[in-house]
Amino acid sequence: MSPRYSVFSLLRNALSYHENWQQAWRAAEPRERYDVVIVGGGGHGLATAYYLAKLHGIRSVAVIERGWLGGGNTGRNTTIVRSNYLWDQSAALYEQALKLWEGLSQDLNYNVMFSQRGVLNLAHNQHDLRETWRRINANRLNGIDSEFLTAQQVKEMVPIIDLRAGGRYPVLGASLQRRGGTARHDAVAWGYARAASDLGVDIIQECPVNGFRIENGKVTGVETGKGFIAAGKVGIVTAGHSSVMANMAGFRLPVQSVPLQALVSEPVKPVIDTVVMSGAVHAYISQSDKGELVIGAGVDHYIGYGQRGSLPVTEETIAAVCELFPLFRRMRMLRQWGGIVDTCPDASPILSKTPVQHLYINCGWGTGGFKATPGSGWAFAHTIAKDEPHELNAAFSLDRFRSGFLIDEHGAAAVAH
Amino acid sequence: MLQISCPHCGPRAESEFSYGGEAHIERPKDPAALSDAEWAEFVFLRDNPKGLVLERWNHALGCRRWFNVARDSVSYEILAVYPMGSPPPALEPRRYV
Question: What is the pTM of this model?
Answer without folding.
Answer: 0.95
